[in-house]
Amino acid sequence: MSTGTVTSGCPSPSLGKNIAMGYVEAAHSRAGTTLTPADMAAGRHRGLPVPGGRACAAGGAVMADSAEEGLYSRQLYVLGAGARRVSGAAVLVSGLRGTGAQVATALVLAGTGRVVLHDRGEASVADRAQQFLLRESDIGQNRAEASRRALAELNPRVAVVAYTGELSEAFLTSFQQSPFTAQAHVVVLTESPLEEQIRIGNFCHAQGIYFIVADAKGLAGQLFCDFGEHFIVNDPAEGEPVCAAVKHISKGNPGIVTCVGMEGSRGHLFSDGDLVTFSGVEGMTELNDQEPVPVRVMGEPPGNPGYAFRLKIGDTRSFSPYCCRGLVSQVRLPQVHSYVSAPLAPWCCHILPCLSRSLHAAFRALHAFREEQGRLPRPRALADAERVLELAWSLAMQPGALDEDVVRAFASVSAGDLCPVAAVVGAVAAQEALKAITGKFLPLDQWLYFDALECLTVEGVTQLTEEDCVPRGSRYDGQIAVFGAAFQELLGRQKYLVGAGAIGCELLKNFAMMGLAAGPEGDLTVTDMDTVALSNLHRQLLYRSADIAKPKSVVAAAAVRRMNPDVRVTARQDQVGPATEMLYGDDFFRHLDGVASALDTLEARAYLESCCSRSLTPLLDAGTEGPRGNVLAMVPHLTKLLAPAAAPEDVTFPLCTLRYFPHTIQHTLQWARDEFEGLFQLPAEHVNRFMVDPAFPEQLPTGKAVEVLEQVRRILQERPRDWQDCVRWACRHWQSCYHDAIIQLLHTFPPEHVSTVPGVPFWTWDKTCPHPLVFDPDNDTHLEYIMAAAHLFAQSHKIPPCSDRASVQTVLRTVVLPPFVPQEGFQMHLAEEQEEVPADGERLEELTRDLEQQRQELIRGEEAQVPLMEPIHFEKDNDIHIDFITAASNLRAESYSIPAASRLMSKRITGRIVPAIITTTAAVAGLACLELYKLVWGCRDLSCYRNSNFSLSDLLAATLHSHLQYCGREWSCWDRLEMRAVSADGEEMTVQNILDWMTHGLTVTVLLHGFTVLYDSGENEGIRALMRKQR
């Protein structure tokens, strides 16, 4: 089991909407102002603070080198260009208990340039219910100092500093003016008194420091953000702006633009009102470099082949006629947002929805209670809860606006410390800090309240008394304060299965803090077949650089033991699937109390669900994609089975499109990927196999055997002697792909060629007329291709490569490329059915004789190595591999006038990388563990469970499970009607027997066995009669 992905759409409601029955309520007090193109041109954005509080100077501290790109690549896909500001930011995190530890950890993993940890308190045993950075040896030491040691180890690229003094204005000024040249300064307060929040908040507002309050108490959390009076959101939406290739533009009012999507898929992502710009348009050049213009989406054009769409633009009647090419790109204009200071001030209470107003007043009353009593309310102490309610009423701005039950419930467990709640609140706070730094996504404006108070309505929790929840001097006292001591023992007896990917790491961290499987009968099985990779380190908490290439499950299990030595954890390296059913069969799953899943393929997810369904084992399924996440609880006999998610289309392209007629960057990237395999993997495999078993082609069809042996002969003839030979080979191959092949194509189908339909040009619609490239050793892209191709060619032939670009250019200038003469009557395969190689028995015999002779000579030669070549399998995190793919694709794109793709985009598309960030992962794991509490309690109330879909770019949300009604009763997927399939005399039942048995009170319309239809009442009588006779 490994990293999860979202397997169903999860659109989040807009900010400010009161979400009934949900986890979160938030409010937007002021709408942002969009800067128009005229504003930008007039310089009205100047003087406004860009994210980071000051202008970002060119060449500032950014994530730029290849090592950092490899480490943070998944995060770069989430945060976009703004991610490069993260390493130039400084964040102060005050309060290093659970929430503060989560905030600091997420920011350190994300690569924040400088993180200052502030806490004046000493670590206690009770802190270890949620503070996962502390070791047992840290008890009695300053929390900031102890946390600094753990965080510095987590990411050596981040400067982690501890401060144990007072949060004075002098210190905050020094933080802002430190020698570290930060592009953004953020202060995050946790575990902070109200008076301190207001004092520091006002100072930060005046000084241009971004300010966040994050607090978690029991089963509720609170966030407040103040990013100043003029905060610019550079990009409020997820993903990159949409773009498309232009195929035609009409002259008219309005002008109609016919486009082909750049994602290589059907449809598009443009919406009415989007602003777009045009570039690279030939003919109607007036559109190029214009100010952004709005578009309206039209239907598909007549004769649309399935991927084209049309957009209406303005009046084009006065423009020149469209000729060819061009790119239309969505423009996202910056927005300016204004914030007020003085967090938790009573004047803004009226903007909050009802539940949030109650929590808002409850948090303020809690501050007042603590100031009055010098402590938090005792768990389950009715008198304390009533006093908090009295204070809430006295502080409320609007009579009748409070839900007294909410305030009482909140107060009764406010002394509790729960790791899952701290994980959610801390993750959201860290994401808000990243929004302040990067200008990516809309920040909260300005409040967010989170609660899981439905946990208190679970049967068993409602019966807890003050005595059940008194502190025991245990590390779990914060959890006992909410759920009682008996529940803690129950947690210790749990038996769970979990993976060790990104979500798995966060789950394991939470499990260790919660004490899951920490009792004598507990058992936590961690299984993962993967090893730790560099790209895991920025979002998978349990791994360090020293763990790279080690088994994830082994490293994760060791980390859990360090966090909580009592957890009984076992590491396995097996994939859960049909091949391992001897290990993970029905008996294994029936032995479990639950499974926490975060699988990254739909097939694996469906298989695990089927195992849990058969064995009636609860399943928590979680996934992430960028800022989006989801958590689904599958409870036997209560909830639905997990909905089968629509599998993402595995996009394939016709070979003729890839070879001759690419029109999107996806086509050129797939072509480059195929080139990689055809040049550096398959030939080496064929040569090695031939050297061991020269008769292996006899197992292939004659045509395929000839093709393979031709390839083997060519490879043996091209065997390089040294690095210079590899460079010359790369140059010749460049010429063959980007010059000669294009010349041949244009000779066969000249630009003026007419298709089989009279009068219709051949080069139109999905066929873009290419142009040959001329090799230039001083061209960066040409040289990058040569460097990568020569390196891979040398590696496959076991020759040491060289990275000296100057020496490579010297060799290239000596290469003489012969003029290419196109062939007459050259046959191009334009249809799939023409691809089969014709059988040629004589040619096969000739090749076999010649190659056997070469094989014997190589075997006798002293320089022969076994195996002769090294097959190279594509790895998305290998820089040389991505260098080749990027250069090869962009050169082909240049030839076909397709906009080039950046290295990061090429890597994402080719490697099919799912964007990921630690904040989403931590939030998902926190939500999953809140559902786990209910499972451990044995909750049978469906209304208590939450099916969570959220987006940290917008707002958290939650929905509930439901049952179906039929024949006057409720049914779920867990209901079963059991009958004997074999009668007493040993005769198997017929379908008619089953129908007779079932029709007592039920009407059978369709009877299925899996996907097989046994009976369908909609068929005619003859077919139904045959169906009824089946056994």
UniProtKB/TrEMBL annotation:
Catalytic residues (UniProt): C656
Pathway: Protein modification; protein ubiquitination
GO CC terms: cytoplasm; SUMO activating enzyme complex
All residue ranges annotated as the Ubiquitin-activating enzyme SCCH domain in the record: 662-907
THIF-type NAD/FAD binding fold domain sequence ranges: 72-441, 476-942
Entries under InterPro entries matching the protein: E1_FCCH_sf, GcvT/YgfZ_C, GcvT_C, ThiF/MoeB/HesA, ThiF_NAD_FAD-bd, Ub-E1_IAD_1, UBA_E1_SCCH, Ubi_acti_E1_SCCH
GO molecular function: ATP binding; SUMO activating enzyme activity; ubiquitin activating enzyme activity
Gene3D superfamilies membership: Aminomethyltransferase beta-barrel domains, NAD(P)-binding Rossmann-like Domain, Ubiquitin-activating enzyme E1, FCCH domain, Ubiquitin-activating enzyme E1, inactive adenylation domain, subdomain 1, Ubiquitin-activating enzyme E1, inactive adenylation domain, subdomain 2, Ubiquitin-activating enzyme E1, SCCH domain
Residue span(s) of domain Aminomethyltransferase C-terminal: 3-36
Xref: SUPFAM superfamilies: Activating enzymes of the ubiquitin-like proteins, Aminomethyltransferase beta-barrel domain
Keywords carried by this UniProt record: ATP-binding, Ligase, Nucleotide-binding, Ubl conjugation pathway
Keyword Nucleotide-binding among UniProt keywords: yes
Top-level taxon in the UniProt lineage: Eukaryota
GO biological process, one term: protein sumoylation
Similarity annotation: Belongs to the ubiquitin-activating E1 family.
The protein, known as: Ubiquitin-activating enzyme E1 C-terminal domain-containing protein
Chain's gene name: LOC101875861
